Amino acid sequence: MRKKKKRVMLPNEEIYAILRAADDIIGEGGRTLVSKILKGSKEKKLLELGLGQNPAYGFFAERTMEEVMEKVDWMIQEGFLDTEMSGRLPMIVFTPIGWLIERDRRGSELLDQWDVWVRNGITPLNMIDLKDCNRGMMLLFLRKVLLTNDEKYIPFLKKWAEVDYKKVRDAIAGVVQILEQQDVQDPLEWEMKKGELAQELLVPSKDPVILACHECGMPFVINGTEPENYTEDGFQVPVMCNRC
Ligand SMILES: [Zn+2]
């Protein structure tokens, strides 16, 4: 009997690591540089660019450069990453689905950082680093803060509101208000308001993502505003269309 050729998949952690490595050099570096970050290269130029600080730096330290390049190429073939010509060089960019996964991961990374600050009693002087970050990502991060139901983040939120633009400031104020009202408002009404705000904070991706249904094979579209795809383990790429 002829065996169907099995599609090779990378484990989720590897997909996440490669997207994170790419994130610091989007539009500015190629697939070789992404691979070098993942390999943990000691190259002077790479370290001067601060890429040794990338959380995915050295993730594939045990692998050969060739193996790492293969994984990065798999990400491009499978549509998580893409390349765009800049001058004569192909630079790595996110595909819409790659960015949906990565922006969610970055939101979790920020929340982890806030947790470290809370645990160690650190209050940063200001939150200027959060300004000028991708807006969809920041609102998604706010959504994560909201869904913790935890008031301990309120001082950070207020500090952040001091430095950001009106649209983000308004969203922050909304989250602060809900967190503060948790104990004074009717629980049902509170849950409803929280749910509404949580939905508003899911910003659609600039380009809709077209996926093929694993069941019927028909194409279907998502745009990153489906709350069921956001789990604790990260953004889950849906495999089936609504009808299946
Ligand atoms: Zn289907």
Your description of this structure?
There is one protein chain. The two termini are 30 Å apart. The longest helix is centred in the middle third of the chain and has 24 residues, at 96-119. The protein has 244 residues and is mostly helical. It is globular and about 60 Å long. The protein has a two-stranded antiparallel ribbon with strand order 1-2. It has a two-stranded antiparallel sheet with strand order 3-4. The protein has a two-stranded antiparallel sheet with strand order 5-6. It has helices at residues 12-23, 31-39, 44-48, 65-77, 96-119, 135-147, 154-163, 166-181, 187-200; strands at 81-86, 89-94, 209-212, 219-222, 230-231, 234-235. A hairpin with a 2-residue loop joins strand 1 (81-86) and strand 2. Helix 6 (135-147) packs antiparallel against helix 9 (187-200). Helices cover 48% and strands 10% of the residues. The site of zinc ion (ZN) has 8 residues, from loops. Zinc ion binds at residues 213, 215-216, 218, 240-241, 243-244.
Question: Any key phrases for this structure?
Answer:
244 residues; mainly alpha; two-stranded antiparallel sheet; two-stranded antiparallel ribbon; 9 helices; globular; binds zinc ion
The distinct bound ligands, ions and cofactors come out as:
zinc ion
Average pLDDT, rounded to a whole number, is 94
The low-confidence runs, each spanning 5 or more residues with pLDDT under 50, are none
Cα-atom Rg, whole angstroms?
A: 20 Å
**How would a crystallographer describe the biggest sheet?**
2 strands, antiparallel
Tally of contiguous helical segments: 9
Distance between the termini: 30 Å
